[in-house]
Amino acid sequence: MLNINCFQPHFVSPCLNTKITCFLSSLLTFFLAYKMLVKSLLLLSLVPFTLACEMDCRRGVSGDLARYYAPVLNETIHELEPQLSRSLQDITVPATITAEVSQAEILDDLRQAISTTLEDFFELASAPSRLADGFYQVIFNEELPYKGDCNHPKRLDRKMPDPGESWTMEECRKMDYRCGNPPSICYFLEDVKSRCVGRMKRQLTEYASFDNGRLVSDLVRGARRSITTSLSNHGMGQLSESAAVEGYVAKVVSAIIRTLDHWVANDVRELCEKPGQEDLCHGWDDAIRKEILKWP
């Protein structure tokens, strides 16, 4: 008969029988513990824990939302074009310039420069590293992130869809608390969208900031270059450094900054709240839910 007292913690062995008996007793204890561990792991594998939205899923959801929001972002950015054009028309072009280049040509060149700048800026603002990454941060990393356990309380009967299948709308409706799986993101779509719109507003406001805003610097640089190029095309590039031209450029810069301030206070602040933007901001809710539920 084996002596089970031979296997003691801290490697202290009070075995009174032979060394062989002690070894066999220890081996039996190890075998029984191993068998119990295997049984426990097997039982755990049968429990249908719901898995969270992992990195590919998070990046995918953020990218899908960015794709749907890009059109309203584009519209909002290009609302600046007529506003800037009107503000420049109110500035008198000095005679020093119009003696060599017509006012119409100066303004046409400025409008073209503004149009090109806004096109380039939209490409920058809608790039995945800007728009989608901003959505990723506000959904998954910042305050009240969509992360964490989706099993307590239990709402779903499976941990993920089978390969090639999606989560269902029924599962979306069941996942009524915030956690890390796609059905939860689907259920709280309005909250997710509100975060995305808030992020776009903050980003556009920062871009239009006088201190270090990218949109401000791009528009000012483009306008200054346009005026210099217009003069150079007529062989009068040296006028660019004259007091009259510098004064005109300063007034153009001031007009750009005032227009941007007005744009932020109105168009950016009302992003996705204007009646005309209803379809751009909300016409794709069913479609994005289906996209979200495709992620495992």
Write the layout of secondary structure elements.
Layout: H1 19-45, H2 55-78, H3 80-89, H4 95-98, H5 103-125, H6 131-141, H7 169-174, H8 182-187, H9 189-207, H10 214-233, H11 243-268, H12 278-282, H13 285-293
Helix pairs in contact: 2-5, 2-6, 3-5, 3-11, 5-10, 6-9, 10-11
Q: How would you portray this structure in words?
A:
- This protein is an all-alpha fold and 296 residues long.
- 64% of the residues lie in helices and 0% in strands.
- It is built from 13 helices and no strands.
- The chain has helices at 19-45, 55-78, 80-89, 95-98, 103-125, 131-141, 169-174, 182-187, 189-207, 214-233, 243-268, 278-282, 285-293.
- Residues 1-17 and 37-49 have low confidence and may be disordered.
A few lines on this structure:
The chain is mostly helical and 296 residues long.
What attributes characterize this protein structure?
64% helix, elongated, 296 residues, mainly alpha
The rounded distance between the terminal residues' Cα atoms is 54 Å
The counted number of beta strands is 0
| SS class | mainly alpha
* Rg value: 33 Å
Query: What portion of the residues fall into strands of 2 or more residues?
Result: under 5%
Portion of residues in helices?
55-70%
* Overall morphology: elongated
* pLDDT < 50 stretches: 1-17, 37-49
Total helical segments: 13
Largest sheet: none
* Average pLDDT taken over every residue: 87
User: SSE order in H/E notation?
Assistant: HHHHHHHHHHHHH
